[in-house]
Amino acid sequence: MAVHVVLYVGLAVHFLGPWSALLVIAIHQCGGGFYMALVFAPNHKGMPQVDDRGDLDFLRKQVLTSRNVRSHPLTDMWYGALNYQIEHHLFPTMPRNRVREAHLIVRQFCAERCIPYHEVSMPQSYREVGDPLRSRARSEHAGRARR
Description:
Helices cover 71% and strands 3% of the residues. With 147 residues, it is mostly helical. A two-stranded parallel ribbon has the order 1-2. Helix 1 (2-16) crosses helix 2.
């Protein structure tokens, strides 16, 4: 990690100068963080949470607490196959090029056992993340207005 940081900052400063390097690094880190949030947030936020005291088995814990984003070649590229979050949690070491096939099998397996399998479009996934946040913000704002 230290070598990475030294090379990352050192090469940027060497080739760009200190102020340009600072600007490029800030833009790069903010842009990368924003992209990561767009990829990771839709998979779990707003889904049920469980703890170790629950009586759910491994399969149900993974399926009921994750959300898949419906597959499309562009969606698969954007998410790097993490749009198949349920399968990713069931089979974390599975190569990305095999997850789509596993998705079909897992979805059918869940349907046969009446296990809810939550899969939505990309826009719907962001709505499902944002709606509880907006609702919470409104209730906080209303609470402050009453004070």
